[in-house]
Amino acid sequence: MLDSTWRVDIPDYKNRQGVFVITPPTVKNKNGKDIGYTMLLMGKVAGEDEQLSGYVEKLVGKYPTRQKISFSNKYDQMIAYEIKDKNLYPHLGGGHLYTVGIERDSPEDPGLLLEQPVVLQMKANGQMTYARANQSQNRFPGKIFYVFLLDSCEDIHEQSLENFRSFLEKQLIIE
User: What is the distance between the alpha carbons of residues 77 and 132, in angstroms, rounded to a whole number?
Assistant: First the structure.
């Protein structure tokens, strides 16, 4: 569940990958300046021979300062990196990023189907109305890689990391 004050942008699904860009409200730094940060959520249907470690490494490999970290125990198959980059946002103390990758297999019991809401037409005379069920969607079969990125800076590192961690550990459910 997302906070209603967070903006969410959803680009098109392509290359077996969907993306959500989440922009929480700005955070004030110690000087009272409002600073924005973003969280990026990606879901990708894994290829047959694809590994989570290789997928995440493609995303963080360009950062020589990346450090593999233990971020959470919520999921068994999780890889996380912390990245500090003084050249990114130098006027805000440098960039401070996190990348968390999670691999999930198809669950034995996939849970609820995803459905599209519809408006049912009601008859004015009070007679029973019949409606045909819409097509419903289910989870993709096989492995799915989920990657969560926090794009922030040193000036608001603690506040943005707290929101990111709370989102991943308390608000997010991945089946």
Answer: 40
